[in-house]
Amino acid sequence: MSLTRREALRELSALFAIPFIRWPERLADPLAGTIIEYQAGRARRDWSAAQVTKEALGRCNAWNGSLHAIDLLSETAMDDAQDSDARAQRRTLRGPLDGVPLFAKSIYDMNGLPTTASSAEWARLFPAAVRRDALEVARMRAAGAIVLGKTVADDFAYHGNGTSSLSGQVRNPHDLTGTKTPGGSSAGSAVSVACGIAFAALGTDDGGSNRIPAQFCGVVGMKPTFGLVPRTGVIPTWPYIDAHGPLARNVADAALLLDAIAGPDSSDGLALVAPRMRGQLAGLRDDALYNARLGLVEAHVPRAQMTAESLSVFDRAVADLTSAGAIVEPSTPTVTRSNVRDLFAEVAKARGDVTPNHNSPAATANALFRYFGTHGDDARRDVERGLPAFRALYDVLPKEWEEMSQLISQPYETDAAGVSFARSRASVTAQLAETFRSQRLDAMIYPTMPFPAPRAVDPWPDIRTTLGYGNWLGLPEVSVPTGVGPDGMPAGNISFVGLPGSDARLLALAHSYERRSRRFVAPPTPA
């Protein structure tokens, strides 16, 4: 059934809950644009979800030999796409993600596929397909998304290099020499969206695992407010700092994916409990920067250690913000990267609490047990079997099963060291909020990382980053590309950082910057 232009505009407006007065641009490659442009093409009958999904899967098969970015592909993706096309024919699409090709990270459970965690040993120990979806994957499917499969990460999402013992080194698609790291641990997610295989992908972030590959691959990466996205059905990392969020080529697509996966669920005892309505995170405006007050935190800009190129692209980003009408002023918050850990310890001592510990052994042990507990009655046996492989990285856990078995049944929500950490977070974040109130700030800005991608085999430059700062405080952060250097490599990202709960505002500011600067550059087509 063909739609008139007016009917299609009306349908597009309803799908995105925003008015459309003109068509989005017609594209030759539907996977090269935004989700809005893709859905406009479907409404025009330029392409179907099945056609685009077939192309996405074809790119996976053609390019993964060099990219090493795809862990496993779903066997139901084409059927799911055809189901979406049938809904489109009936004009009953479930929302803006219906029929949109997306990915999840290898530590996510996905019905019909084994969960490899990108670890050769884990894949050997647990080769069977799981029979459930992680909560976020289930929410993606409920929104009608086409979940293409899973992307490669560092083993158990632990490091930031994109190196998997199962799949090898993920390649940075911008680097023609094949030597530069894509960052990690959400390496494959960043690479797949940068290359136009999928519109967006799920990643996780305990200390930069979304934001590092976002910068090194030149895409958008977000670490939401701690607890905004429940984490059930995902191999755990550190329960008190782990945040799950999107990677995408543009902020609007990241906002749509976050909007679909966010919201309370009792299965994650550290998730936020306040109810929320769908659509609250996706209301973006091009002029959101006008009169916005942004604090430039020079304490987080290590100018003396940054290269001239890194400084240049960051200062240009600041100029873009001011030209868009933002009020950018120097900010010296009471809580910075350099003092945040001391402040956590000080406020814990002042209240007579135990030492706060974000990677408490008991909390991590219980999280692993509860992950397996979702798979049946053999959780204790599975934890014991997987412990040596998991503990090789998460080495706070006991070596001996007898000691480990005493920890796994203690709920991480009541772990003394973890609860102390959460209490310190609340106190120290309140101190940061005073800075926001006194300076009337909407957000802070600083470089996501103060250096571009090094070679995968080299150590990183000895320059401190702000990555852990946001995780300790549970702050939302949106990282947006600021351009490429003369070598064609992404030169940096700028971070918009706010108080917990300001995710929608940060997305709006980041979107406005992106629209003003237009700094995203797609990598060359993979060989």
Q: How many distinct helices?
A: 17
**Strand tally, please?**
13
In this structure, how is the largest beta sheet organized?
11 strands, mixed
Q: Calculate Rg over CA atoms.
A: 22 Å
Straight-line distance between termini: 39 Å
What multimeric state do the chains show? single chain
Proportion in helices: 25-40%
Summarize the structure.
The protein has 17 helices and 13 strands. It is an alpha/beta fold.
List the helices and strands and how they pair.
Blueprint: H1 5-16, H2 35-43, H3 49-67, E1 70-73, H4 77-90, E2 101-105, H5 120-125, H6 135-142, E3 146-151, E4 163-164, E5 168-169, H7 187-194, E6 200-205, H8 211-217, E7 220-223, E8 243-248, H9 251-261, E9 293-296, H10 308-323, E10 327-330, H11 340-350, H12 361-373, H13 379-391, H14 401-407, H15 416-439, E11 443-447, H16 467-473, E12 477-481, E13 493-497, H17 503-517
Parallel strand pairs: 2-3, 2-6, 9-10, 9-11
Antiparallel strand pairs: 1-3, 4-5, 6-8, 7-8, 7-12, 11-13, 12-13
Give a written overview of the molecule:
With 527 residues, the chain is α/β, with parallel strands linked by helices. The protein has a domain of 305 residues: Amidase signature (AS) enzymes, CATH 3.90.1300. It contains 17 helices and 13 strands.
